[in-house]
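Weekly structure sync, notes
Attendees: PL, DS, HV (note-taker this week)

Item 1: beta-galactosidase
DS walked through the input record. Source organism listed as Olea europaea subsp. europaea. Sequence as pasted into the shared doc:
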Amino acid sequence: MATSLDTGVPWVMCQQSDAPDPIINTCNGFYCDQFTPNSDKKPKMWTENWSGWFSAFGDAVPYRPVEDIAFAVARFYQLGGTFQNYYMYHGGTNFGRTSGGPFITTTYDYDAPIDEYGLVRQPKWGHLKDVHKAIKLCEEAMLATDPKTTSLGSNMEATVYKTESGLCSAFLANWDTKTDATVNFNGNSYHLPAWSVNILPDCKNVVLNTAKINSVTAISKFISQPSKDDPSSSGASLSGWSWINEPVGISSQSAFTKTGLLEQINTTADKSDYMWYSISIEMNGNEHILKEGSGTVLHIDSLGHTLYAFINGKLIGSGKGSNGNRKVSIEVPVTLIKGSNKIDLLSLTVGLQNYGAYFDTLGAGITGPVLLKGSQNGSTIDLSSRKWTYQVGLRGEELDLSSGSTSLWVSQPALPTNQPLIWYKTTFDAPTGSSPVAIDFTGMGKGQAWVNGQSIGRYWPANKASNGGCVDSCNYRGSYSSNKCLRNCGKPSQRLYHVPRSWLQPSGNVLVLFEETGGNPKQISFATREVESLCSRISENHPLPVDMWTSDEEARKKAGPTLSLECPHPDQVITSIKFASFGTPRGTCGSFSHGQCSSKQALPVIQKACIGSRSCSIGVSINKFGDPCKGVTKSLAVEASCV
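Item 1 (cont.): predicted structure, written out as tokens:
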């Protein structure tokens, strides 16, 4: 069917090793250098180079060091790769109910080279740009001939693209995870750090090593905006809250009754995250389950993803699945009364499975059993096959409360907080300036939010990652996996939620929340994403910046390694140098410190070269800074601020 459409371009199938001719089978993954197409008539293509990984509610946040991505890209082209595509290159936001998973967060930042807010993530963006330029310098030789690879020693090899006309480009790789090496190639000596690739466009001079970053590093932070209660405030402000209670159980004329328990996704047709399961049971007082000391519990099994149980209008328990196990099983104590007892179960989806074989068969919702059990006397009432009443969605969804326009909103001095199933509304002014905007949902539980009628997605700051697994710094050496480098352990998986500036007016914006579990909306605040610092660290043995590369050896020696800084916005200039050291500086961007030796000339030289300019470049050599420690390879580390 596909080939009969005569598109004029080849079809590809990702991760399909038996793709029939002429379909091109391609590779997705963190590494694809060892991938081989299923026919020598097909090019070696990398359709998804995973630049990071998605985050899930309840999990820590993954990130991937750029040195590792650069290594993977260089290795792929070293070994005959023809095409590669990043997934993701630009992170984003799962607005509305579009997140997959289930349990994938509203943010899909993915630690991508361009982040969720549209800002370049440095040094990831800049270093990959340099890698691309370096490979481009080898393009003519790579297109003209096939590569030839030879060993340089244990876990090392050289690959050469050389034509009869004299074109020559080479890649030298060291995939050892611990040991740096010095190798001889074509009569010259080259330093090869562990888990890195040297790229030589002329088979002689190194234009780039994947582990040595010339790009600037930027530290971006969310800066909290002052509230309207602050007299000096000129930022975002929230103005008064109103609310509407969401009724427990069935409230819609469209409710219906069926015998037995229904699967949720096929019942809702994904029109809402929410579905009510409701049943009334009559107790005449003689049932064993009501006897003194019976210890009655309500047992519920669900395919997921989240569940709230109410008895006679009161919340008695809840349960949630996770990224690793979507199913929910709860057993909660209940107190039943003589006469009619109403059991209302609110089942929720948290994004739908969107990948993998037969994912449409997995289902969601309460499929049972649902049991009333006397834990002491062993009596059981199975409610699973009885008649249940169902409601797709919430009353508030039916009334379009998310628009904020109804007259039903209640405004009183005493705002109800920390109660389940409640809608909140407020108005706010947009933060001043042009920086990207986020809402900080600290103080809230779980729910959904809308700004000016546009859904900014599901929020769930109450769902925190476990305390274990995070490290202060992640070693890029060695194979990457999605749980290797983690942040945010012991913290909410997502606390800040993107609000596009294009959705905002200067004033009079409407924020509507539906809170499921209970929270305090007065703790909500706004934040803007700002670049706090620029940093760079360049050693005496760094290659020249790629843009300055030349095969002229004298010109290269004259230029030497160079540290460059550039403010992120065209109207900014460097206003201060927070740190400068030439010698053996320690630490990383934001936490640099002086090492055992440091030139006293570093700070005044950098200040003179950079302050007042949008960008500056400084040669890294003892000619400029003096030699504070002879016989030691020295580095220049700088941290600066832009305004």
